[in-house]
Design goal:
The chain is mainly α and about 280 residues long. The protein has two domains: about 40 residues; about 220 residues, MetI-like (MetI-like fold), CATH 1.10.3720. It contains 15 helices and no strands. It starts with a helix and ends with a helix.
């Protein structure tokens, strides 16, 4: 009798969940549609790109647009520039966020909450409000038109500090840190040997967020870069658009290429991301 009731309850729950799953599938399909369209357009010849009515699947697939991407501009150089800037900023953000999060999450000192609130407050300030003062500061430091000028605003991320602080409070046992101190380990050694290894899942999630945030940056590089050699991939993609024309085929092909590093880093760090989600659910 219990088994029959259990099966009927399971069927009722299944029927209730079915509409939700259908809605989620439709929503996922709608979100994937622009990406599928972008990939399909990147393989279309110019005549199909502007054809009406438009075709979803390329009738005559070609790699012509990918060749044009590298013919019209030094796209490989811009890709490398973005990769250098993004990787350096990603590593720096993970280090500064984990260290600051550890300090705010574990240590007790005067005005700790005040300073933390100030850091959080900077997250809600639009970048455009302090973009010009930051530019003038970079100009005084002679960092305009340089890699350090592009990377400087991304070395510290207020969201990263908040994210790592919450992770340490939730998942880092203070008993473990006290045991390490009793064994004679200093705070720096505890941070490097204990805190960072235990935070690998959270750091992986932060790394992906930081990578996407820096990789997609457009306004700041546009402001501080004046030479072609230092352009990033976002500025390169904007070069396919002029006041009168848009090279849709090469633009879509370049956009597909620009997504490859994001996809690659997600594949590399997917195990840590799954562990982070699982730990959050367990908590």
């Amino acid at each position: 009798m219990v088994g029959v009731n259990g099966n009927s309850r399971f069927r009722r729950e299944l029927w209730w969940r079915l509409p939700l799953h259908v809605i989620l599938i439709i929503g996922a399909g709608l979100m994937l549609l622009p990406f599928i369209w972008m990939i399909a357009t990147s393989f279309k010849p110019p005549s199909e790109v502007v054809a009406w009515p438009p075709t979803f699947i390329p009738q005559s697939p070609t790699l012509e647009n990918y060749g044009k991407v590298f013919e019209l501009m030094p796209f490989a150089r811009y890709f490398l520039n973005s990769l250098i800037v993004t990787l350096v900023c990603m590593v720096t953000i993970c280090l500064t966020s984990s260290l600051a999060g550890y300090i705010f999450g574990i240590f007790r000192f005067p005005l700790r909450n005040f300073f933390f609130i100030v850091i959080l407050a900077t997250a809600i300030v639009p970048f455009e409000t302090y973009m010009i003062p930051l530019y003038l500061l970079m100009k005084d430091l002679k960092s305009i038109n340089s890699f350090q000028g592009i990377m400087a605003p991304y070395f510290i991320m207020s969201f990263g500090i908040f994210f790592m602080r919450q992770n340490y409070i939730a998942f880092l046992p203070e008993e473990l840190l006290d045991a390490a101190r009793i064994d004679g380990a200093g705070e720096w050694k505890i941070y490097w040997r204990i805190v960072l290894p235990l935070s690998s899942s959270a750091l992986a999630a932060l790394a992906i967020y930081a990578f996407i945030n820096v990789w997609a940056a457009f306004i700041w590089p546009l402001l501080v870069v004046n030479t072609s050699d230092l352009k990033t991939i976002e500025l390169a993609l904007a070069g396919f658009q002029t006041a009168y024309t848009v090279e849709y085929g090469p633009l879509m092909a370049g956009s597909v290429i620009s997504l490859l590093p994001i996809l690659a880093i997600f594949i590399v760090l997917r195990r840590q991301i799954i562990e982070s989600v699982a730990m959050t659910g367990m908590k």
